[in-house]
Design brief:
Length: about 375
């Protein structure tokens, strides 16, 4: 089976380890277990006593009850039996496509987004139609265009909310309109919601799994809980046929997610507000720093993110984004992600939820780099 190269992951694989100032990272500044337990007031001695004496079996195959109970509380209406644990959100997205898509199925996916959402169904033989998210629309879906794309046989509509790489946030009412369109033809709506809740405003972001029986939410412990090293994600849906199909296919690639990982995740979820508040503070303070930097620069611009941890920043230098980012890394140690990884050119993705000093230092080095580029390099 052929599949397109995963551009963003290949870029990260090749260069991330050589970065001095990693402002390409998309997780909120990762926590150590010690930091997590301090934040959540977890008794370390009690935790180790419970875990160290436990045999290292496979554990609960579909995910531990405490883990799935904690995940359920992130939604308005979901219970543990509506949730299936996976190895990260990447594993969850792959599993949904593996279970639901077949050759010839009609799939609609937004772009730019995480490449899984269109390259995986394409590799399974689906007919994938791209709904382009445009800068002039603040990277929100054009519902009239989506309506034209939807057919009676549309199998799946793929969203990413909040969006990676742009930080766009689909308003709740717009999300309900997408659901209404899907419902008319019985299409599933898969929404990668790994950044859900990391909003710049204080409004609650609905999950597609709460709005629609055929809505499928994918999440993980990586972004909003700063625990990417656990490699834990989940599929959440009211649709038991989807859960059963995913579980059946999951048997071929994953037995369980591991009792140690789920035990740590459960502690984070029990006291999630402490982690969540820490991370909301980080993204809001850091975006203010990034926004101030943008306004001081002559050659860059962006649509200000409404949520998430990333922004897509355009520049007016006549330098392809791969070359721009590689030269920047080689000369300064600053690591960004080329826009070309998302089929967007003359721009780069920045992850602004890192340690605040890393962001400040990286932006300073970026200023020095762009200042050294010839004015003649600017696109007229």
């Amino acid at each position: 089976m052929k599949i397109q190269p995963f551009k963003v992951e290949e870029w990260m694989n090749a260069y991330e380890d050589s970065a001095i100032y990693n402002i390409a990272e998309t997780c909120v500044d990762p926590l150590s277990i010690r930091e997590l337990f301090e934040l959540t007031a977890t008794d370390i001695e009690d935790f180790t006593e419970r875990i160290f004496g436990r045999p290292l079996t496979y554990g609960a195959i579909t995910g531990s009850h405490s883990f799935k109970t904690g995940i359920g509380k992130l939604y308005r209406s979901l219970k543990p039996d509506n949730i299936l644990s996976t190895h990260g959100a990447a594993g969850a997205n792959h599993l949904v496509f593996y279970a639901l898509t077949e050759p010839g199925d009609h799939v609609i996916s937004v772009m730019p987004t995480y490449q899984q959402l269109y390259s995986i169904p394409e590799s399974f033989g689906a007919e994938v139609q791209i709904l382009k998210l445009r800068r002039e629309n603040n990277y929100l879906p054009d519902l009239a265009e989506l309506k034209e794309m939807i057919r009676p046989d549309t199998k799946l509509i793929c969203l990413n909310n909040p969006n990676n790489p742009t930080g766009a946030l689909i308003p709740n009412e717009m999300l309900r309109e997408v659901v209404e369109m899907a419902e008319k033809v019985g299409a599933y709506v898969l929404c990668d919601e790994v950044y859900r809740g990391l909003n710049q405003n204080h409004e609650y972001t609905e999950s597609v799994a709460d709005l629609y029986e055929r809505g499928i939410s994918v999440g993980s412990m990586s972004k909003i809980f700063s625990l990417s090293g656990l490699r834990l994600g989940w599929i959440a849906t009211h649709n038991q046929e989807v859960i059963k199909a995913c579980f059946s296919h999951r048997d071929y690639s994953l037995i369980s997610c591991g009792i140690l990982d789920e035990a740590v995740a459960s502690e984070a979820l029990k006291n999630g507000s402490a982690v969540f508040n820490r991370n909301l503070t980080r993204i809001r303070e850091n975006l203010a720093i990034l926004d101030s930097w943008i306004r001081e620069q002559a050659h860059v611009s962006y649509v200000k993110p409404q949520a998430g941890t990333t922004a897509l920043i355009h520049y007016d230098f006549d330098i392809p984004s791969y070359d721009f980012c590689k030269q920047l890394l080689d000369k300064t140690g600053v690591f960004l992600t080329p826009g070309a990884c998302f089929d967007e050119e003359y721009c780069f993705r920045i992850g602004y939820a890192c340690a605040t000093q890393t962001l400040k230092d990286g932006l300073q080095k970026l200023t020095e780099f762009t200042g050294g580029l010839s004015e003649n390099s600017a696109i007229s």
